[in-house]
């Protein structure tokens, strides 16, 4: 698989590279990245042919957007696709008063949830100023899921459907942005959203992977039917599909439970038999689905970026996927064939 090949989105006509650049790490998630290293990372991605970059106000409380804009500013604007998100307004505040977790050394702003129509319009305007770019291609409503809001999720979801979605659809109709949708951690929320609104795309983090294919139960088929493009994030399930079943491996941002360890061990056994790197299987598997044009693994270093590029290029024989199905390690209806994978 060529990681920098272009795939065209059916509704918007946007073209994104198969591998995108997830910009949460340059927002200093968990530990800091220097300005120099952030700039080098964006340049290395560009030089490699990556042409899709995803950021958000949440990432480093504006730091990721600022760094993305700085890194991309002098490249031809019609040669790359940029997405950012709405749902959090950034309010100026003293650093000592801000809880930055899980970000380190973010910008001096406090994120405040706001899914209203006016708040969404303000968010897009603020993002354009932080980015200092001519336009945003894709605008996504961020985190209207249970993972983020718990018991308040239904309230936040309805607020977003009534306010943020109407604002984004208006901006799309006016040509201010080219595609709109949402970015969430749960496919069920995304499924309900595309039943209710005329969205072009969705960013789904960690819910369609080698370990999880429940999204095939209605959600991904509906995306295919409605030609909604799915940006896949979190393809390693936050760690274990990159590291393998090693002590301390993470699954969904926590220590992986024993049933997950056991399943990954079984997948690793098949990987060994067919000489397929686990990471390659994880990255390439999701892209076999016709509704998923791009995968955006986050990277912290140029070495990690280069490793991901090579991982996408790894040869995976069709017999490998057939064996995973035979052992019931992935679903029988999961697309995997070499015909499906560009």
TrEMBL record:
Record-level Gene Ontology MF annotations: pyridoxal 4-dehydrogenase activity
GO annotations of cellular component type: cytosol
EC number(s) stated in the UniProt entry for this protein: 1.1.1.107
Protein keywords: Oxidoreductase
NADP-dependent oxidoreductase domain boundaries: 19-325
Organism whose genome encodes this protein: Paraburkholderia sediminicola
Superkingdom of source: Bacteria
Enzyme class of the recorded protein, top EC level: oxidoreductase
InterPro entries assigned to the protein according to its UniProt record, in alphabetical order: AKR, NAD(P)_OxRdtase_dom_sf, NADP_OxRdtase_dom
Name this protein carries in UniProt: Pyridoxal 4-dehydrogenase
